[in-house]
Structure formats: structure tokens, C-alpha cells
Amino acid sequence: MKQSQQGRPRMRGQSVVTHVEKALRERGVGPGERLVVAVSGGADSMVLLDALAGLQPRLGLRLHVVHVHHGLRGKAADQDAAFVVGEAARRGLGVTVGRLVPAERPRGTSIQVWARDGRYRCLEAVRDRVNAAWILTAHTLNDQAETVLLNLLRGTGARGLAGIPQTRDRILRPLLDVSRDEVETYRVARLVAFREDVSNASDAYRRNRIRHHLLPLLVKEYNPRIVRSLATLAALLREDESALAAVVAALVSEGVRADEGAVQVDISRFRSAQPAVARRALLEAFRLASRDAGSLTRAHLQALVCLLTRDAAVRLPGGLEATRTGDCLQIGPRVVAAAARSDCSPPSSDGSHEIPVRPGRWTSWAPLGCRLRIRRLAASAVASASRDRWRQVLSPAVMTGGPSLRGWRPGDRFQPLGLRGQKKLQDFFVDAKVPRRERARIPLLLALGRIAWVVGQRIAEEFRWEGRGAACLAEVEFQEDTDAVPDRPNPHQRS
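The chain above was modelled as a monomer; its predicted structure follows.
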């Protein structure tokens, strides 16, 4: 492994140092300011650390390095941590190694989401402990382009196309305007040592497939400057988002208020608002009522929009209900379970109706605001197929077994993967800590008249892929805005 040299960066690396210094000065970082630097050991984060160390004497910075050990990659992860500790010590910097415990991952949370959330919690905890002004991460211009494409392919609105902000809360990304080629030029010129994570070469993750295949194709066949073009698009949309957010904030300030455990919306204030403004203001009202907008689907949001023009009631996630009477719309705890419903409310399932699933085509499931597709997967593609809570590989028998979707019925039983005997679905929900109010929203994928997959929870033992031959890929796609859908990032992705 090559070791970096001390001293001032050569001219070829000046663009990196200039961008880092500019980002710090624009955020008012001055002499004596303490900064937490997130360092995975990968090339991008090691270049950021080297540039900051070079700027340290001139700007009077106080740097503290943080490395997060996810506990997922055995000796390789241990070696990453040891490398970062050594590099920090060589530069005379304090260092903290935060450790995540995979066994503590909540059931139902994907490893990727758990790792990302845990990483940022760890960084924030250290920032608070050392009283630092900012957390610096090494996201680059290429990361920005990949994120825009990732969100576009998944289905998104302007907010998703706005990509990664340079700042969020106390997080600052000084390399966001620096391309990966510029980072590599700096690294070579400075002989910056780094650790290579082999998982970055895997195509199991969608972001890696975009990085390795889609972006190079777009550069070669369509636009040599596509990375910069996508980043420019994101910057322009962030400006639009900022302007729109100010208008929404004004409407919320005038027409939304918290009152005795519920949120009151003054419909008269919303009548003159543009649909995009009203929709986002209603989303903010739900956030105020629930403190969690992540579970609000596009179908629920559209149902709230319907309440601006008619008196009705809409059941919302988290045990909440929105009711409209006259010019008052209230969002609060569901008081009466059998409250009236309107046709703009997301339909609920009583488990009595089966929806046929045609292989290769998407089938909508309104109660969860999602759609499901099953398709054949060649044996050669199974190993590289990413799997998580919403994407599973099953036996090909699912394809030919008259597949369908329906909701939970009393008395339903299946054999969860890994268990020897059958189990009542009700008992499975209890053990999995699925709230009672959410159980009817969960679709069941049936084949041969039996449960093949309790979607988002567990596949059935009898429909597991045997490890050879073709398979069936079942995947779920949520019909909602990007901010409301958890991404499936690579937990080891270098930054």
C-alpha cells in the first residue's frame, strides 16, 4: 500500500484543496473550529482527510477523525479500522472508532438502511461529544450523479432529482463539486494511501450497477459530460426546492396549527394555493401530527388532497385519521375505528378478494401504496440479485402456481423460512411485532393456493429457492415520493 507524502499538494491537486477551502469558508468555518471527519479508509475519504490536514495550519482547524466499523466484513473491516487509526495518528489527529452491532438491528430493517442510519447516529454522537461544528463527509460529484440517476430510475419528483445537498443539518460535503477523476489525480500526485473495499466492485447493489455500467454507457454514447450535467440539474432543482419550501412554510405558518394533540388545517387558506404547494403543506401537517412522514404514501397524500374539496374521513398511518368538516380539516389520533370512509381514501383489504398476478407485469396493492412484480430469474443471475425486505428470490414454482395477492384472513397459516412446522399468520405477526392496525395492509403472495411470501416479512419454507436452476424474483416498488421511501444503499459504499 502506498504511503502519502507530507507537504503542500502539487498543482494538479489544487482543485481539491481549493474546493474544500471554499466550502469551509462559505460555511463560516474559522480558526479554532473543531470538525469531525468521516473516514472509511476509501480513496475519497482519505483524499478529503489529506486535504484537510494540509489546510489545518493555515486555517487553524481542529480535526477529529471518526471511522464507523459496521461489524459486517470480519477481518477486512478490522483492517480498515486499524488503517484509519494509523493514518490519523500519523497526522497527529484524534480518532474515534464507532462500532455497530448487527445483532441489534431491528427486525424488518434492511442491513443497508440500518448501517446508514447507524453510521450517521455514530457521527452525530461524536460531533456532540467533541463539540464540533460540522461533520464532513467525502461525497463527490460522481456520487451526486449516481444519486440523481438512482432516484430517476426508482421513480421520483423534483425533490429526489435535487440529489444530495452540500449541507444538511450539521453535515457538510466539501467534495460535492469535485469529480472522482479529480480526486484520483490528487491521490496519485500525493501518493495518498487508501483501503479498497471489494464490495464496491459487486453489481449486487443498484448504485454499483449505475456506477459500473450505466454512467460509462451514457458518457460513451450520449454525453461525455453527463456527470457534470446531472450535478447541474440537481443544483438547479435544489434552488427550485428552496424557493418552493419558503412558499410552503408561509402557508403552513398561516393555515396549520397544532391544537390539543391534533393538527388543524384551515381550508380557506389553501384554496388559492397551487397544487404543488398545497400538497407539500399537507405533508408538513402530517409531519406535525405524526412526527414521522416516512410512512405516508403517495396514495395517502392524494387522499388528503381530496379532503380540500369534500367532507370525508381518511385513515392515515400511525393510528391517525384526517377528517374534513366545512373549512376545517383535522389530523389526529383515530378516535372511532369505524369512522366513515370516502372513495378518495386508500382502499383497505378485508382479505376476501384475490388479485391475480401476471408474471412480468406489475400488480398494484393499494392498502400499502405499492406494486409487486414476479419474473423469471436465470440461474446465472441469482448470485448477483440483490435481496432485502422488499426483494426476494423464490422457487420458480411461484411462477406457475397461479400466483395472486390478497390480504390476511383469520386462520391463515404458513411455514416461515427456517422453521420446521407451520405457524398461524396471526402468531407470526405477533412475534414479528407487526402492529395490529398494519396487518391488513400487508399483501400475501400466494402460489398453488398457499402463502409463498408474507411481503416485506418472510418467505415460506416450501417456496424457497433450492440453490440450483432458474428462480423467481419477487420485488416491490412503492408508489410514493423519494423522501418517503428508504433507499437500499450499499452499507460499505466508500465516501
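The longest strand covers residues 62-69.
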